[in-house]
Specification:
Organism: Rubroshorea leprosula
InterPro entries: At4g27190-like_LRR (IPR057135), Leu-rich_rpt (IPR001611), LRR_dom_sf (IPR032675), Plant_NBS-LRR (IPR050905)
Oligomer: single chain
Pfam family, one: LRR_8
Strand content: 15-25%
Number of strands: 32
Keywords: Plant defense
Protein name: Disease resistance protein At4g27190-like leucine-rich repeats domain-containing protein
Shape: elongated
Structural class: alpha/beta
Amino acid sequence: MNWKGHDILDKLVDNCLLESGERMYKEEYVSMHDLLREMALEISPQFLVKASIALEKLPEEHEWRENLLKVSLMRNHITEIPSSMPSPKCPMLTTLLLFGNKISTIPEAFFEHMLGLKILDLSWNRQLCRLPSSISKLEKLTTLLLFNCSSLREVPALSNLVGLKKLDLCWTSIEELPQGLNMLTNLKYLGLGGRLSETLDEPLQNLSKLQHLLVVADSLSKTEFKWETIGIWGKLQNLERLYLDSLHNLNMVFGEVGAIAKLASLPAGTFSSLQDISVRHWSESKEGEKVTLPNLERLKLTSLPLLKTIYSGSLICDSIKKIEISDCENIESVFWSGFNPFPNLEYLELISLPHLKSVFDEEGLGLSPHVPPTSFFSLKEIRVSRCKQLKKVFSSGWLLHYFQSLETIEVSWCSQMEELISSSAHEEEKVTLPKLERLELTSLPSLKSICSSSSVLICDSIQSLKIFGCENLKRIPLNFPLLDNAQSSHPPSLKEIAVFPKELWESLEWDHPNAKDILFPFCKFQLTWG
């Protein structure tokens, strides 16, 4: 479904019906132009859309037409649905979005005449205490979203909602699992939260189609989730994504013998479909124990106060392509091992690691300039942000021989960063990154050079160079194809150089004597930055 959704969005963007954009940390989004949106609503009489207009009351009874298909009242200031209001007679209605309001009560019979409803989103109604029993009659419902309804304490029986595919109860105050949860055999996405104290083993046993399991424990709760046995894992053969972001320890799931050790004892093939794990308080295995997750593609580690380095060989993930590590206050190095446990890693993102001192340590990794460049050969993107003790990303120039597939390097808000690439006097003078397309350096006040005075970085594929807020940067030891082939009739790969402030451009020193004159046409001087 995710891939199909992205395909649809891509087609809409290609046909200029949606506009794509990018927020901080490269979060992508799409939006519709206001004029286009108004036109779409004007020619769609079966849609009732009053979103983000500070609406305080539900639309009047006459506005709920019988032919309505979709209603969106999200992000308003609606506080209640009056008990005197009859159930809207909308038998064709399939989608009702009430996300982001202040609704505290919903009349018991409100959904009586909406029996065709498939998607109901009540998320972020923090004053909502209970749901009407008429929800139990919505037998065609496929999606029920109650995320962050923080006052919600109970949910009506769900046993009739056998078509439900997505149920999100995260950050609610429910103390008991909804009655009939084990009957939802078509469920693919399940988000659980609140103050549950019962076991999850039995309710999850029948959910054989479950692909995405998200478990969030209420930090204010005195109780914790109880995982008495691990029998359910052998039955969740289709599980692709497992999120345990707020559990105090992954051992809560797999028992007291250690998370990785317990994983190793599971039946063969249990996690054969698992592609995405996101956890807090990850537990290491005992010395000598290893586990292989054959299809894991993404690993996200967040808020791990005890973690000092990523695995030293206990976890083998040949298929992993993306690693994200953030807010781990005591991590000192990312990779420390006699070998690289992630040979197919393509994307590495490190955010808010205040004690990080080393990303790639050739001594810890057992790498040598005399060894063929096999480790990390697949890495395409590396992003480092808010690591205030990190002084360099690559601890030596020859280490870059292991990163010949790199396409993007982004480093930002690292206050002690002095060099991107550190090199000793005896190392070779030229280092090549043949596929590097984008280099972005942002808010690095201590940065003096991209690499040491004895080295030159050759980037034949460079397209974009951005330097913002690096006031002490003096030398740019980059060798662009354009500099060596100024008379060439072929268009260079370089497309832009963005600099802030403009004075920085004047003070920069280049190895090529005519670099400033040749590169000036590619410059864009930012007026503001931040």
